[in-house]
Amino acid sequence: MKLLAPLCLALFVISTIGEAQAAPKHKPAHAPKAGKAKPRKAAPPPRKPAIDVEGEQVNFNEWQAVREFEDDMVAKHGFDRAALEGLVGQVRYVESAVNLIKPAPPGKPKNWQAYRARFIEPIRIRAGVRFWDENAATLARAESQYGVPAEIIVGLLGIETLYGRDTGRFRVLDALTTLAFAYPETPNRADRMAFFRSELENTLLLARDTGIDPLTLTGSFAGAVGMTQFMPGNILKYGVDFDGDGRIDLSNSAADAIGSVANYLSRFGWNRKLAGPWAIPAEVSPSRAWEGLLGGGLSARYRPDELQAAGVTTQVTLPSDRLYGLVDLQNGAEPTEYWVADDNFFAITNYNRSYFYAMSVIDLGQAIKLSRGA
């Protein structure tokens, strides 16, 4: 979900701890915009949010850093000070968000096969087949427009939220305000607080632009929203109104989710000219000259002849005009798997900076595609 690439922060919590109370109404926290407003389809009545925790009622308005944030929102974006304070006064401190964002303690070694088994399984495959069947025309349109294959879009949405079943049940304002101003003590605390403060700003702008009550917006403990688990800033940057109803709704519109994922991957380097496979099994030599290739970052930068010179070989001949990166998938006590991957594989890592994640998106999409064919 590293600060997980924008979306990254795709982790979500699915245990129900309590039912939310209906969010109180409040005065819009912004001044009217000058000029004629662009016609837009009215947002549907907000659904009662189902949140995981009630949170603790605190007076964030008494926090100096929060008041400085409010000053910025008034000065930069024309928000009404009194209305903004009224909104912030309804925000809760969520201790569970703080606990969940903390780095995991050292545990078992990474295990790709165990990770894969969690996602490439019958329930997710059947749900993916059903989602693909129900949205085949939309997926085909997204593939034509953005060049991202349907199997990749379906695989990614299956990994992220099981097609909208597990989108998270935290109030986004609660989670983001808590993490923006009460982030746990970590070496990168200042950077992380700045990120969440920016996403809190984006949430308020998103709510104003779409005409929704920001207190009704729900998502993961880190503030990721909808089927796609986009952070609010990425909804503003990459969200697509793919069903043409005048709104971007990543929680209820499968079309908008499909179009937004395709747009995101396209913007982050997906190349329609690179046909699969996007990752190919490889063998590495005992000389270990290839170890330096693992530090190449999340990009494809090596020619096939450079891989071969470093002791990396594949059972198939790699196209000479395509660049690759060396990917290591650790398997706990078992031998590590090595793969060579092209730019499209690494485009997926911009969604979540993890080799395991990108490979599982590809594998789930292929499993669903094969199941549909069968």
Automatic annotation (TrEMBL):
It comes from the Bacteria. This is Lytic murein transglycosylase B. Residues 64-366 form the Transglycosylase SLT domain. The keyword Signal applies. It comes from Massilia terrae. Residues 1-22 form the signal peptide. InterPro entries: Lysozyme-like_dom_sf (IPR023346), Lytic_transglycosylase_MltB (IPR011757), MltB-like (IPR043426), SLT_2 (IPR031304). The gene is mltB. Residues 23-54 are annotated as: Disordered. Keywords: Signal. PANTHER family: MEMBRANE-BOUND LYTIC MUREIN TRANSGLYCOSYLASE B. Residues 24-41 have a biased composition (Basic residues).
